[in-house]
Specification:
Layout: E1 2-7, H1 21-30, H2 37-56, H3 61-71, E2 74-79, H4 92-104, E3 112-113, E4 117-118, H5 124-133, H6 138-158, H7 169-184, H8 188-202, H9 216-236, H10 252-256, E5 263-268, H11 293-302, E6 312-319, H12 321-326, H13 343-346, H14 350-360, H15 371-374, H16 377-383, E7 386-390, H17 392-398, E8 410-416, E9 421-426, H18 441-452, H19 458-468
Parallel strand pairs: 6-7
Antiparallel strand pairs: 1-5, 3-4, 6-8, 8-9
Helix pairs in contact: 1-7, 1-8, 2-4, 2-6, 2-18, 3-4, 4-5, 4-9, 5-6, 5-7, 5-9, 6-7, 7-8, 7-9, 8-9, 11-14, 14-16
GO molecular function: lyase activity
Family: Belongs to the PrpD family.
InterPro entries: MmgE/PrpD_sf, MmgE/PrpD_sf_1, MmgE/PrpD_sf_2, MmgE_PrpD, MmgE_PrpD_C, MmgE_PrpD_N
């Protein structure tokens, strides 16, 4: 990897494009380096993972609305939509929109956490939609996705958006544009302009993940994917972009991030170096914010020592700054303690999640968030006894660069009314690569089968799983086989809009 210094440059300095971060990102995307076999295998895993969570959410309101919007823009030469037979196609930006919402809705696909946080599998829907539309091969798709992951993860390693209340799609959109550039074999100067456009249009605030969290949490990455496709389309037609998009004196670093004196160091693969970023990401076994994954597993372990949950006086979760301030009591969001809160809010409340996991010993992407479950009196009593606190050591480990120290869990103290105390800790979730049961291909397939059971037919399930595992050998024009269709008559329709 090469570490690139990124600083604000005054307009009068006329910063050369070769010295701009967007140009360097475009260089990585244009590099025709081969994709390693283990990276290709992990890409297949994440396509399976995306399909699992997308199909499980097919009839949730946000997904229904997004699908209806997409179906109103038919294009017989376009891309497929999850749940809809692949013969019925739409414009690629709208397929990316619908599929992106479906993938993100349950908050149960992969994650990468570093200086900022991300769900790098959000890069897949727009890259796949363009690949289907342009009749690319499985190998082309693998190359595009490898780039999308690499750029998303490298930006997340280096540039914190959260501290400036900027939503993480600001890293996602340029990564999606870069991945599409790789997929299509575009030249560096074209990708450069697309990346700059993508950055310019995707900086939004993180109010989408604050207070009463709405369905826009699922729509935000889909919106980025739609913007990325449109950006690439425009620059392929000869249009340009604001430049330099990162370093400009009136651009994002100077006014939205660390300011005119900012200095970032962004790692990117050297020319000819394989794009291995995906191997540093990890998926979710449980439906909820990633920082909850280890704590859910820890709750399962600790519950065996509690005979009576009403005997609990207080629970304190000692964890990282990020966990405390995003999904913990440090967020100062009263909605995180409200039994009537939205599902999107509850999956960002570690107090709620830990209470339910402690009581139930299981976690389900639907049942654990059901309104009746959230309103249960004994759960509310326990939930309201839970608080989080930042522990500097867990913050250090959360930000560690050594993968053996990196952790996203915490230490839990359960104080009982008799004066005794239970204490335990867990650094990473069981499914994490360094966890007790790291996810492999069989686990991804099992997750797909569990989450799609009763929604699609066994025949369709087997067909998709066979096709996706043949991805490196799928010829040009065959990528619609990666779509998954629901049985006729099972997809719901939503409220009418303008179209």
């Amino acid at each position: 990897m090469i570490e690139h210094d990124v600083r604000v440059s005054p307009s009068k300095a006329s910063l050369k494009r070769e010295d701009q971060l967007a140009w360097k990102i475009a260089g990585v995307a244009a590099d025709k380096v081969a994709v390693p076999r283990d990276v290709a295998a992990m890409i297949i895993n994440r396509i399976i993972d995306n399909a699992a969570v997308a199909i499980a959410s097919l009839n949730r309101r946000a997904v229904v609305s997004a699908r209806d919007m997409a179906l109103a823009r038919p294009n017989k030469s376009g891309a497929s939509i999850f749940g809809v037979p692949s013969g019925k196609r739409v414009f690629p930006e709208w397929a990316a929109w619908a599929n992106g919402v479906a993938v993100r809705e349950l908050d149960m696909h992969d994650t990468f956490l570093a200086a900022d946080y991300s769900h790098p599998a959000d890069t897949i829907p727009p890259i796949l939609a363009v690949a289907q539309t342009k009749e690319k091969s499985g190998r082309d798709l693998i190359r595009g996705i490898a780039t999308g992951y690499e750029i998303q993860i490298d930006l997340t390693r280096a540039i914190c958006l959260h501290e400036h209340k900027i939503d993480h799609i600001a890293h996602l959109c340029p990564a999606q544009a870069a991945g599409i550039g790789t997929l299509l074999g575009l030249k560096q100067d074209i990708i450069y302009q697309a990346v700059q456009q993508a950055v310019h249009v995707s900086f939004t605030t993180r109010q989408s993940r604050k207070g009463e969290i709405s369905s826009w949490k699922a729509y935000a990455p889909a919106h980025a994917g739609k913007l990325a496709i449109e950006a690439v389309d425009r620059v392929m037609r000869g249009e340009g972009a604001p430049s330099p998009i990162y370093e400009g004196e009136d651009s994002v670093i100077a006014w939205m991030l660390n300011g005119p004196q900012a200095h970032y160091v962004v790692p990117l693969p050297a020319p000819g170096e394989p794009k291995r970023g995906i191997m540093d990401s990890y998926t979710k076994e449980h439906s909820g914010e990633y920082q909850s994954q280890a704590l859910i597993d820890l709750a399962f372990r600790m519950r065996e020592k509690i005979g009576d949950f009403d005997a609990v006086e207080k629970i304190v979760i000692h964890t990282s700054h990020h966990t405390h301030t995003v999904i913990g009591s440090g967020a100062n969001d009263p909605q995180k303690m409200d039994p009537k809160a939205s599902r999107e809010t509850l999956d960002h409340s570690i107090m709620y999640i830990f209470a339910v996991a402690l009581q139930d010993g299981t976690w389900h992407h639907i049942d654990s968030y059901a309104p009746k479950r959230a309103a249960r009196a004994d759960t509310v009593r326990l939930w309201h006894k839970i608080e989080t606190t930042e522990d500097p050591e867990w913050t250090r480990r959360y930000r560690a660069t050594d993968p053996n120290e990196l952790s996203f869990g915490g230490r839990v103290e359960i104080f009982l009314r008799d004066g005794s105390k239970l204490e335990d800790e867990m650094a990473v979730a069981n499914a994490h690569p360094l966890g007790a049961r790291p996810f492999g291909r069989d686990d991804y397939i099992r997750k797909f089968q569990v989450m799609t059971d009763g929604i699609i037919t066994p025949r369709e399930s087997n067909r998709f799983l066979e096709a996706v595992q043949e991805l490196p050998r799928l010829p040009a024009g065959d990528l619609h086989r990666l779509n998954v269709a629901a049985p006729a008559g099972t997809l719901e329709a939503g409220k009418p809009g303008i179209l």
